[in-house]
Write a structure and sequence with these properties.
The complex is a heterodimer of chains A (114) and B (116).
Chain A (H helix, E strand, L loop, with lengths): L3 E4 L2 E4 L4 E8 L5 E7 L6 E7 L2 E5 L6 E7 L2 E7 L7 E8 L9 E2 L3 E5 L1
Parallel strand pairs in A: 2-11
Antiparallel strand pairs in A: 1-3, 3-8, 4-5, 4-9, 5-6, 7-8, 9-10, 9-11
Chain B lengths: L3 E3 L4 E4 L4 E7 L4 E9 L6 E6 L3 E5 L2 E6 L4 E6 L8 E9 L11 E2 L3 E6 L1
Parallel strand pairs in B: 2-11
Antiparallel strand pairs in B: 1-3, 3-8, 4-5, 4-9, 6-7, 7-8, 9-10, 9-11
Classes of the chains: A mainly beta (114), B mainly beta (116).
């Protein structure tokens, strides 16, 4: 089991639905990330939060809306998605912004958009 | 040309073999190097992390970095069927500047199968 917990594990949603992905870590990390991984491809960065503030948005469409309510939680709100958005959505965390430390990933939410 | 090129595999080896996984990179700003293992339907699991040239050993795993040649390797000794997974190399630039913080550049992954 990883120390980064993601829920739900699987999600099927229609193109008009609104849903949210949740991520939680209790390692005291102050940087948290969303990555997207398509089948047989490496993960791609979407967003970076540092000390609960959004610090990097990799030109992600506005139908993806991240939120960091506190240092342990990270959400990704989804609205009006397209079938091509179907992928594994990975949350990760690392120690903080001041000292480089490697990322630790959760097991992801497998999203299917119908 | 991709910034990070990983030997594509797939690799199939017998149990007990020594496995060598390799990546080359073109961006000399990369300073941090990682290897992740990803089982089917799971997230990437950090195996090894290093930031200096040379070898780093952890149990059956050895990570090797050669910054002058822009080349990294992961060696697995006494491979086991439980090592069957996709292996991803990943790199990151120095934090200085901060704009690339947290952005890992991954290789395309190598699928490894260790058969009994």
């Amino acid at each position: 089991d990883t120390e980064v917990t993601q829920t739900p594990k699987h999600l099927v949603m229609g193109m008009t639905n609104k849903k949210s992905l949740k991520c939680e870590q209790h390692m005291g990390h102050r940087a948290m990330y969303w990555y997207k991984q398509k089948a047989k491809k490496p993960p791609e960065l979407m967003f970076v939060y540092s000390y609960e503030k959004l610090s990097i948005n990799e030109s992600v469409p506005s139908r993806f809306s991240p939120e960091c309510p506190n240092s342990s939680l990270l959400n990704l709100h989804l609205h009006a998605l397209q079938p091509e958005d179907s992928a594994l959505y990975l949350c990760a965390s690392s120690q903080d912004r001041d000292t480089y430390s490697p990322l630790h990933f959760g097991n992801g939410t497998r999203l299917t958009v119908t | 040309q991709k910034e990070v090129e990983q030997d594509p595999g797939p690799l199939s080896v017998p149990e007990g073999a020594i496995v060598s996984l390799n990546c080359t990179y073109s961006n000399s700003a990369f300073q941090y190097f990682m290897w992740y293992r990803q089982y089917s339907r799971k997230g990437p699991e950090l195996l090894m992390y290093t930031y200096s040239s040379g070898n780093k050993e952890d149990g059956r795993f050895t990570a090797q970095v050669d910054k002058s040649s822009k080349y990294i390797s992961l060696f697995i000794r006494d491979s086991q069927p439980s090592d069957s997974a996709t292996y991803l190399c990943a790199m990151s630039v120095s934090y200085a500047g901060g704009t690339s913080y947290g952005k890992l550049t991954f290789g395309q992954g190598t699928i490894l199968t260790v058969h009994p």
